[in-house]
Amino acid sequence: MLMTDMISAPWEASLTQAEHSLIFYFLALTGSALLFGLARTWLTRGEVGARYRTAVVARSGIMIVATLSYVFMVLAFTSGYDHVGSLWVPNSEAIMTIAPRYVEWSIAVPLLSIELLSVATLSGVSARRTRLAAVAGAFLMIFTGFLGAVVIGDGRSVGSLIIWGAISTVFWIITAVILIRAIRHSLPQLTPEAAALLKTATIFLMSGWAVYPLAYLIQILFAGGLWTTSIHIILCTADIVVKLGFCGLIHRIAKLRTAEDVRAGVDIHTEAIWISSVKQSDAGIPTVVYLPEGETIHQRRPKPSDSNATASSSARQWTDDFPPTDL
């Protein structure tokens, strides 16, 4: 295959009934899963402290944009293919089954970077600079891939796909290095449990991002309805795993670190924090919920007997100043 060769774009392939049904199934399944993720994000938004609220905002943005994207793609898929004989033949709208993914990724991937950094230990100027660099790298990674896969050469130029794919890979490496350095800096400052979860979440995200180039390579190397179906299945599966799995891990880290801050007396939370049915901290203000070193749960004190209760000095003074009168 030469750089000057022209190939068929994925949205130009005719589909069999089975391929058409599979693509619709995975598009609808992924959209429904993301809608569930959006609902869960909204319902659990109060489980983390203000210090990690950025993770909740980023997660909400990811779920909203991704859900809307899949709704649009399902609608585009139903109108983008015409049933001719035994095949589903693409029309001019079929490109909208692929292109919206890049629009969604242009927002979601930078937000994934922000979400990971929000539970790291960077702060102040260092946090802002790292976040800006990661967001810029993540956006350029997606945008340059979009230029090669859809825009330049209409997704049919082998040369454009390879060149812009290579440029996108450079930005992928830059973004990954920025995030990994920030996480490696944070790990020694975290508790063993939080550090282990953060390390797992980072590996999870990096592994998920490695799947997407596979679909990009399929567009270069193969053509036809079977491979178009494979691209959709790979991308839908990756979106479910990364957006729900990774975001779930980050939420758990944010809850755990919130509980640790409350126990240390440096933050407050309006309710007790539980993770997997294990109580991590009580609710209250720092002076109330502060625990001695080595303790994780308050020992409840017995309620004093009402028969032994005595009035406070202020109450006795009020009684002396305003004696009761008979009515």
Automatic annotation (TrEMBL):
One of its GO terms (molecular function) is photoreceptor activity. Gene3D superfamilies: Rhodopsin 7-helix transmembrane proteins. InterPro entries: Arc/bac/fun_rhodopsins. Pfam families: Bac_rhodopsin (PF01036). Residues 297-327 are annotated as: Disordered. It is a multi-pass membrane protein. Residues 305-317 have a biased composition (Polar residues). It is found in: Membrane. Keywords: Chromophore, Membrane, Photoreceptor protein, Receptor, Retinal protein, Sensory transduction, Transmembrane, Transmembrane helix. It comes from the Bacteria. SUPFAM superfamilies: Family A G protein-coupled receptor-like (SSF81321). GO terms for cellular component: membrane. The chain crosses the membrane at residues 22-43, 55-77, 105-125, 132-152, 158-180, 201-224, 230-250. GO terms for biological process: phototransduction. Belongs to the archaeal/bacterial/fungal opsin family. This is Rhodopsin. The lineage of its organism: Bacteria, Bacillati, Actinomycetota, Actinomycetes, Micrococcales.
